[in-house]
Amino acid sequence: MKGDGENGSVATEIRGAQGNVSETKENAAQTWLRAAKFKEVLGSDSSHKSLFILVAHESGEQGVLLLNKSPFSENVEDIAALIESAELSEIMKNDIFGSYDVIIPSKLNLVKSTLIYPANEKVIAKYRQEEKYIIHETAEDYNTITVEYIKKYQMDLKWLHNVLSKESEAERIIFEDPDPHNGFILSPDIKWDGTSMENLYVLAMIHRNGVRSIRDLTADDLPLLENVRSKSLSAIKEKYGVRPDQIRAYFHYQPCFYHLHIHFVSLKYDAPASTTLAAVLLDDVINNLKIASDYYKRATLTFARKRSDKLLEMFREAGRCEP
Amino acid sequence: MKGDGENGSVATEIRGAQGNVSETKENAAQTWLRAAKFKEVLGSDSSHKSLFILVAHESGEQGVLLLNKSPFSENVEDIAALIESAELSEIMKNDIFGSYDVIIPSKLNLVKSTLIYPANEKVIAKYRQEEKYIIHETAEDYNTITVEYIKKYQMDLKWLHNVLSKESEAERIIFEDPDPHNGFILSPDIKWDGTSMENLYVLAMIHRNGVRSIRDLTADDLPLLENVRSKSLSAIKEKYGVRPDQIRAYFHYQPCFYHLHIHFVSLKYDAPASTTLAAVLLDDVINNLKIASDYYKRATLTFARKRSDKLLEMFREAGRCEP
What we know:
Oligomer: homodimer
Strand content of chain A: 25-35%
CATH architecture of the largest domain in chain A: 2-Layer Sandwich
Helix content of chain A: 25-40%
Subcellular location (chains A, B): Nucleus
Largest interface: A-B, 116 and 116 residues
Largest sheet of chain A: 6 strands, antiparallel
Keywords (chains A, B): Hydrolase, mRNA processing, Nucleus
CATH topology of the largest domain in chain A: HIT family, subunit A
GO cellular component, one term (chains A, B): P-body
Order of helices and strands of chain A: HHEEEHEEEHEHHEEEHEEEHHEH
InterPro entries (chains A, B): DcpS/DCS2, HIT-like_sf, Scavenger_mRNA_decap_enz_N
CATH superfamily of the largest domain in chain A: HIT-like
CATH class of the largest domain in chain A: Alpha Beta
Radius of gyration of chain A: 24 Å
Number of helices of chain A: 10
GO molecular function (chains A, B): 5'-(N(7)-methyl 5'-triphosphoguanosine)-[mRNA] diphosphatase activity; RNA 7-methylguanosine cap binding
């Protein structure tokens, strides 16, 4: 069971990394950091073991340090070294079970970091963790608020049309059904390295224009959805050897861009935005449209948005969310 | 932003822990571990940075070592110490952005562990990670397979009836609506420490008997669901000061026990089994029953089960899942 592309032994990786860098550059960042003072915790995630902090020099120059504990190496030598050198401090012992704080050698316990300096306010704002708020979007809210939001803030989809017309990224296509009404292109997601099956992440983008999100779907679109589901799962099985019952297929709602697309992700991968308040299973959408053809014209859809989000702001202005 | 109950400085915690343990016991576990050899990776989670391994002595005595990287301390002194002592090895530098492997002092980078020894095969099996498989449960599958599974393997609910009758855990109740048809008891979940608001996790258990899961719900139960939703969110606001739009309320499907209960969890907490293949939002259930009163009598529900799971076995025996 591998993850995050961890393959070689840690010791090798460290030597490799150090061999390739200039001493000067390496010291520059470290020197800059050591002369900085801690200012603020911008964000943290105790489940994933990450910490984002703001630091600053006396001159006022600021930097953002993103720290993320690395996964354990699963290399046999590294595990053997860990067992031999672990220092245990007992917290509790009961029958065969004991809890310990363990100190392991630093080289087996690296932290991956990004240091951004000098950092301006826009960069700092990007990494400042924001509280999220739940929105209940009725069908009426969608028509009066969300449609306006999409018109106003929708990102430019030129990149997507270039992909669909194969003017760009044609070499990345895993599978294509060229049918203009029910066809689609299947490609690896940019977040995926393309090799680690634990993190398999591919994206199906439909050829048809004008379907912005699941809100636009009715039972008339079942042939489209069932076509994407069956052909994508077959293509993934054929290319990567991963069974259909090991793949989770879902939409985001709200999506990141408003041209219908479907995420196909390994069941083993705890992907960002795959929880109930962000993702809707393709199987559930198909089921819902079979139960009521106009399901998405009537449904109240529940999702979460960050504090500074424009859509949340528009819901608040309309009096549909508490300020 | 705190998590996992991390409050004091790490340095203090280590001193505290070491001060309270007998040298002998502490050494016993370490001595046992150092004499052991690595046998097998039982499981790993690269997102949460954990590793479960099987180790064994030459005598054949086996042990299970569960390793879990600790979250970063957010104590100001610990962060200052980290900044001062971090050793950076450059991986990549581009404009203001640089990536580094960082070595930080061991005492700021503890691993929490559990060592179980001697471990028998049953204990080992419990920690061996198993692949999951997706099941599509039609209404017919529910009636012919799942109902049989519930009859055969449902856990004894005496503990639950003791809670509902207040014979046990009465002191833990946050709120009760005693109505036998639409009432419920709200209590902290056993996984929650009761103090860290980041991880807030409370459970509503309905008083009415015979509602096993969302499958048993129809539009007739909307008053029950809306009652639990509004009164639980109010009670959480009053007792913990957390706003309703900061709480995610959901069912598990399949649930862990078959007496209807609802999870109320902080939006900030990445709770286990809160993804689309395990959790169903209370808001979505209410919405679905409004769209079709018999929604859960007709729906195909999609969820994932582990390889050795009895329900998966029964679906496979019935020819409803690939072997």
